[in-house]
Specification:
Largest sheet: none
Number of strands: 0
Shape: globular
Helix content: over 70%
Strand content: under 5%
Radius of gyration: 18 Å
Structural class: mainly alpha
Low-confidence stretches: none
Order of helices and strands: HHHHHHHHHHH
């Protein structure tokens, strides 16, 4: 199946969109019958698997010092810019601008959009797809998003399906941006970007398991800094 989506431009994003669509439809029909206890168990499984993906990605790091410096300076920059706070307030802004008579529709759309788009897995996956023509990480994310969308749609309704639109635009744009930037990114740069992304994905897993409450949004500038520090070192 991976080979099929390798042949499609932004194939990982296409697969991701399909899984969310199918998962949302299933959720509308059967999600409401899944008890809360079982939903928490499923999210714990997603958290563990996310940690596994993150650890695997970190093993390819070429320059640990560059990754460490990027993570620290990027997080400080993100904190000063208030990125995490701004990302959290995005939900309130969307609710105001997309206000409908169906409150559950808006809530479902906003919740799903933030869950599927705001995260390093989407960014690193899109870069993998664009630079290496490898959609596997986005396909892994797609399966996880499909399961999550089923649970969300079961409780929040049809708004979850419409989260596909911003997700497709966002991840697709990042993929084509990566294709354009490919000539300027060396093998070591990419390895360190991927390793740093793995640390962030590991953080997502810890947050899903409710072990930590890491402000991963504040860490996003590190993905730019790691290129700079790799060039220096």
């Amino acid at each position: 199946m991976i080979e099929i989506f390798k042949a499609i431009p932004a194939g990982g994003t296409v697969f991701n969109s399909l899984t969310v669509f199918i998962g949302s439809l299933l959720g509308l029909f059967i999600g409401k019958f899944i008890p809360q206890r079982l939903q928490e168990t499923i999210f714990n499984c997603l958290g563990l698997f996310t940690m596994y993906v993150g650890i695997n990605m970190t093993l390819g790091t070429k320059h640990s010092i560059a990754v460490l410096l990027a993570l620290v300076t990027g997080t400080v920059t993100g904190d000063m810019l208030g990125l995490e706070t701004k990302l959290n307030s995005l939900g309130d802004t969307l609710k105001a601008k997309l206000h409908t008579s169906n409150a559950r529709f808006t809530q479902g759309f906003v919740t799903a959009t933030l869950l599927f788009c705001v995260g390093s897995m989407a960014i690193i996956g899109a870069f993998n797809d664009g630079i290496r023509h490898d959609p596997e990480l986005l396909m892994t994310k797609g399966i996880m998003d499909g399961i999550s969308s089923m649970l969300l749609a079961g409780s929040l309704g049809t708004g979850v399906i419409f989260s596909i639109i911003p997700m497709f635009i966002y991840q697709g744009a990042l993929t084509f941006l990566a294709v354009w930037a490919e000539p300027f990114i060396t093998a070591d740069m990419y390895a360190n970007i991927s390793g740093l992304g793995g640390l962030m994905i590991l953080g997502i897993g810890l947050n899903l398991l409710k072990v930590t409450k890491l402000k991963l949004g504040d860490m996003l500038p590190a993905l730019v800094y790691v290129i700079f520090f790799t060039m220096i070192l």
